[in-house]
Amino acid sequence: MTIPKDTYTYSNVNTTEENANASDESLVERPEDLPVAAAVPMAEVIAPATLPEGYKFEATIGDRSFMIAVPIGGIEKGQRFSVPIPSDDSAIATRVSIPVGHWKDSLISCFKFGLCHAW
User: Between 60 and which of 27, 65, 87, 91 could a Cys-Cys bridge form, CB atoms 3.0 to 4.6 Å apart?
Assistant: First the structure.
């Protein structure tokens, strides 16, 4: 297969100073007040049960927990869905470590502040 030879004659390009600024102009109008897109951190949640839309439950990431609402259409148990992570600290609660499997105090801790404070 042979490739045909280019027979078109091209004209010379003018590179003088007066024509140099013509390439700086845009052919597309750019409004100055365009909205700025911001990235929102998302978390993937596994549904703990089959829940209707709008139902709120607590989700935990590490030691932080926050309330999320079930999206439109509801969810089924085990279904994965994405929710935005709240950016303000007021919506996020830090988990408190509670001792499990043993008493917090010892048997004679009732006498900690003296014999008269036991009862």
Answer: 65
